[in-house]
Amino acid sequence: MALIGQRVDKVDYWKNSNQKQMWLATALVDIEPRLNRIMGYKFLSELRRALQREFGIKAEKVVAA
Q1: Which of 5, 29, 25 shows the shortest CA–CA distance to 17?
Q2: Angle 18-15-11 (CA atoms, 0-180°, nearest 5)?
Q3: Helix (H, G, I), strand (E, B) or coil at 38
Q4: CA dihedral defined by 25, 29, 33, 35, rounded to 10 degrees?
Q5: Do residues 51 and 28 touch, judged by C-beta distance below 8 A?
Q6: What share of the chain is helix, strand, coil (3-state, %, to 5)?
Q7: Is residue 24 within 8 Å of 8, Cβ to Cβ?
Q8: Residue 17 pLDDT > 80, yes or no?
Q9: Of 3, 16, 19, 36, which sits 20 to 30 A from 10 (CA to CA)?
Q10: pLDDT band at 62 (very low <50, low <70, confident <90, very high)
Q11: What is the mean pLDDT of residues 2-22?
Q12: Is the pLDDT of residue 44 over 70?
């Protein structure tokens, strides 16, 4: 989060949420090579299913990239 903060914290005025999303996406693409693998990443799909069951969210078909 610190790497993202370095890129977006100095922005004082956001016109709308689309602009925020654009800045965040740009920052993520920029720092992607420096991101470490998330511990427990193998269990993220299991977590997604548990959250969907808990909150009654319909499962969406996810296409692997």
Answers
A1: 25
A2: 95
A3: coil
A4: 0
A5: no
A6: 60, 0, 40
A7: yes
A8: yes
A9: 36
A10: low
A11: 84
A12: yes
Closest CA to 25 of 56, 52, 4: 4
Please tell me the predicted confidence (pLDDT) of residue 46: 92
Assess whether pLDDT exceeds 80 at residue 54. Answer: yes
Q: Which residue has the tokens 């548990």?
A: 50
Q: What is the value of pTM for the model shown?
A: 0.47
The residue with tokens 């009654």 is 56
Mean pLDDT of 5-27: 85
Residue whose structure tokens are 């991101």: 35
What's 7-36 look like in SS3? HHCCCCCCCCHHHHHHHHHHHHHHHHHHCC
Radius of gyration of the chain (CA): 16
Rounded to whole angstroms, the Cα distance separating 5 from 1 reads 6
